[in-house]
Automatic annotation (TrEMBL):
Presence of the UniProt keyword Iron-sulfur in the record: no
Organism name: Siminovitchia fordii
Keyword Hydrolase carried by entry: yes
Domain of life per record: Bacteria
InterPro entries: 6-blade_b-propeller_TolB-like, AB_hydrolase_fold, Peptidase_S9_cat, WD40, WD40_rpt
Name of the protein: Peptidase YuxL
SUPFAM superfamilies xrefs: alpha/beta-Hydrolases, DPP6 N-terminal domain-like
Domain Peptidase S9 prolyl oligopeptidase catalytic: 463-671
Keyword field: Hydrolase, Protease, Serine protease
Amino acid sequence: MRRPLNPEDLFELKIVSDPQISPNGKSIVYVETRIDRLTNKYCSRIWIVSTFGETEPQQFTSGPGLDFAPRWSPDGKWLAFVSTRRGHSQLWIMPSTGGEAEPLTNIRYVGGIPVWSPDSRTIACVVNVGPKGPEEEHGRKKTPRQRFSEDVLVIDRLEYKLDTTGYLVGKHWHLFTIPAVGPDRGKYQQLTFGDYNYSSPAWSPDGQYIALAGNRTPERLDLALVNDIWVIPATGGEPRRLTRSQGPANHPAWSPDGQVIAYVGHDRSYGSYTNPGIWMVAASGGEPWELTNGFPYPVGDKSIGDIRGHKEPSISLTWASDGHNIYTCVSKAGAVHLWRFSIPDNQAIQMTTGNSVIYNISFTPDTRQVAMAITTATLPNDVWVADISNEKITNKRRLTRVNREWLSRLAISEPIRFSSRSANGPEVEGWILYPHGRTPARGLIPAILEIHGGPMVMYGYVFFLEFQLLASQGFAVIYTNPRGSMGYGQEFVTAIRGDWGNHDYMDLMAVMDYVLSQGLIDPNRLGVAGGSYGGYMTNWIVTQTHRFKAAVSMRGISNLYSLFGTSDSGFLKADEYSGPPWVFPEKYMKRSPIKYVANVRTPLLIIGSTHDFRVPIEQGEQFYTALKFQGRNVRMVRFLNDTHELSRSGNPWHRVIRLEHILSWFQKHLKVDYRYK
């Protein structure tokens, strides 16, 4: 008999990510993350599994801390990875046949992933360095003045903080190369310098150059929306810019002949709401062009969930060995699948199908095999492998079942898809999770509308622990992709640019009207919840309607005017509203829930984190104080030392306590009477 979920089931959940297939296609290494309830810490290890599936997966690394970002050397002899086992993230290396791992350097703050040179002798990576260069793990001791003045920051730039990273003062991410074999093993060389940040290094096929993404544009309001692709000699020298500072440009990938570099980006045609696509630029320089011009869906994984691995890498681009195609993943209508883009004829072919999300991929050098990390609405995550034959996916097979026992004893619900349409609006896709075992004859069901953040992401076929918890405890959970979501075309996502609370609000209300028309949901026991932009919409909804009897606003925006100056990216709102709030105050305040706070009658739970730089706690404080001042039913739960990512990768016990507060708030105000058979 399956039992309902409870918040502490989070501790038993295993999370797999970043599967990397070996050059010979026989093995896959991946990261498995677990949570220790006694130490309140995450623990990630590297595991290995045969692609033939004849043996059970085996643990490959051990020790304290976090091991992640495993990467095979091209000759298959070595495995490099990043580990925090000595306190700070450093580069480690071990034989691919197993054995003891060794630190490759004594350098702190290695970021991103290690990238091997084609000859398997050198690793490129980015390192966070200060004005005096990289810090060594066992460097000189700091003086009393140095130790006791570290909490004094001198700030003179617009973009000076970043959620989950901290304050961007005095340190930058720079490119390093580190010999992995030979007499110079571990002797690092810094290749880039200055007050700039670089990421995503990629070696040229001949090993003579390294492409990377970086921002060296003069500081301006659209700073965070601009990135360029650069090329630098592998031995050092001045980086050469290839792109035109039109928008974000990331994840460079060299063509097999070294003549062209593909990258993920866009030209900001619709500001930050522009769908990212595949762009190309000649390695020698010239005008970039978009391979995906006219393609309606965003490249990459735009799905959102609350179960993901530690420092899970973004989906990047992979060239076919013949140089005629590029493989990557695309987000479309709640699913994320592998696609092939043909360079000669600009054809886009979907390679995988089904109600699932592929969130990490890797290929063998001949692009004949692909490793995939996959989730569905009822499967948290697992590793799969497939063959690519005649440009088709064949022999797709699942290699891990890491949560088999966990799933076997819990009440997991299968979502039911539906669609609705507001007046003069497009079709909007949604899903509903009914309580496990619930039948219509047992009475009307209390329901909770969940609203995603972003807003430029999408709900879909992803396992969502929060949703399954609520459904197993007797609530129907409704989730949908209103206008502003990605995965439904450029016009759909751009519809709310500079106009939050309008078309998106109409879509959400139309969703509720449709669901209620089906006759299973109790119209007198409706709740609404959301985080980030979803928290904004929750705040907005309770100022516009009284149809919901309880609400939970998590890291939610209440005042767009003050967000401009307090968020790590609030100044980007100038791109949406044609200028800053002191020039157009009416535009910002017209769509700020705080302006209409006197209308609120819905009992509201506000959840925030003190170290949230994306939606600072002051946003929740404003709304809470205004409501409490009026004597309204409001409660605030604030988590000290957590960031905007609390629900996904925050303090483990805080994640559990957060879920308990959400559940108890809705149980109290929606009066759940659900019982299991």
